[in-house]
Design goal:
Two copies of one chain form a homodimer.
Chain A lengths: L6 H20 L2 H7 L6 H6 L2 H15 L13 H16 L7 H12 L5 H23 L5 H20 L1 H8 L1 H6 L2 H18 L9 H9 L1
Helix pairs in contact in A: 1-2, 1-4, 1-6, 5-7, 5-8, 5-11, 7-8, 8-11
The first copy, chain A, binds a DNA duplex through α3.
DNA sequence: ACCTGTTTCAAACAGGCGTTTCAATCAACT
DNA sequence: AGTTGATTGAAACGCCTGTTTGAAACAGGT
């Protein structure tokens, strides 16, 4: 850690690494202070206690890390817009080994196991991106009802997020070197083509009119 | 907990709930013992220590919980096979509030944050299901190269797993009551139609002509 | 009844944790 | 220099954790 930075930002940086690696419960404030080259009492002086340090770390993570520029060009085709969205999403999700690495890992922890800090996270970061995706999907399927639109959005998001969530298992399944060939460009291309093909050619939803209709869909 | 069960299985059941809810680090052996109506020293007597209890809990979870019957009917169409796969996968993933609920939550924890216990987990339950999915996808796309087949498999799996991983955030995004309308039947139908449409109509992958073409020849 | 091995129990233990304390240090202003 | 306020430092404090202890309760066999 750079010693010329003020102690507070060194603590935030160290806490980010530590929390992202181990989670709130396992992370130790002593380790954070050692990593930040600060005294054990520094975190209490600057942040009050461990939990407030965590909250401020999460907030500082998504303030400078997760904002993506939304190319609002209404001229481009829906497919191009979706590709841009997927590319932006994946580039953030797959960011590995980069200097601002811990920010993404920390936010993914928040997604899976929400704490009090994830309220503002959803409101300020996730929801705008979600609404943006819904806009794009509506251009594909103007007739789709809201519920199906949500499901489509989750289909796109789920494909992307899987390469962060399921990475450890995926590496064991197909090997690390094969997994490395699934790089940003390849996955952007695959997920976009997969989703566009689905969105353009999937049959309309089956209208559910009564309780017996669900059984009918089961039989296909 | 039923008091007629021997203490050891009561401890396993209680530990499963506790570990699935809070994770290994946050879960307290005292709480486990209270939940199991056992003494605080019981876990040490029966399992040695907390970590061995955790390992045995994970193993007991996938021994009786995660095995799905594979309908190997080669007569049915690929779409029907995929629907069966998605249905089976989702029914396990979405199992919330059911008696063997904690088994799935615990295994998903292992997937995201692997421990020593997840080696056997991947080998004995994940990989067979993954190979089965690859078989189905090969019937859709006999010409696809291996790497694309993996990506397609991850696209299907990612869609399903998202409803477990991203559930907390999804509930905040669209509301819990709307989320509850995305039940097993609806999601099975959606993911199957989405994926089948994609698999049947997505354009073939872009031929790689650059220096990475050597990798393509490697894959055959 | 007696012994024997297993299982339960209440209580205490040792260690690590977040946190607090208070004196020492530093920076800036009079 | 002297004073003031903010920051750092080393050490200690409680508290909560997993774990251990040794006696008590139980079961089965002789």
């Amino acid at each position: 850690m750079e010693a010329q930075d003020p102690t507070k930002v060194r603590l935030l940086e160290a806490a980010g690494e530590e929390f992202a690696d181990k989670g709130f419960a396992v992370a130790r404030v002593r380790d954070i202070c050692v990593r930040a080259a600060a005294n054990g009492a520094a975190v209490n002086y600057h942040f009050g206690d461990k939990e407030q340090l965590y909250v401020e770390t999460v907030l500082s993570a998504h303030h400078c890390g997760m904002d993506m520029h939304l190319p609002r060009s209404e001229e481009s085709t829906p497919a191009e817009q979706l590709r841009a969205f997927v590319h932006g999403f994946l580039s953030r999700v797959l960011a590995l080994g980069e200097p601002m690495d811990w920010r993404h890992r920390l936010m993914l922890r928040e997604l899976i196991q929400p704490t009090s800090a994830s309220d503002v996270l959803v409101r300020e970061v996730i929801r705008p991106k979600f609404e943006r995706l819904l806009e794009i999907l509506r251009r594909f399927r103007p007739d789709a009802e809201e519920r199906s639109l949500y499901a489509m959005a989750f289909s796109v998001i789920g494909q992307c997020l899987h390469y962060q969530m399921g990475r450890p298992v995926a590496e064991r399944l197909i090997g690390v070197e094969t997994m490395e060939t699934l790089d940003l460009e390849f996955l952007t291309d695959h997920i976009t083509r997969f989703s566009v093909a689905a969105l353009e050619s999937m049959p309309p939803e089956i209208a559910v009119t009564g309780p017996s209709a669900q059984e009918a869909t089961l039989l296909g």
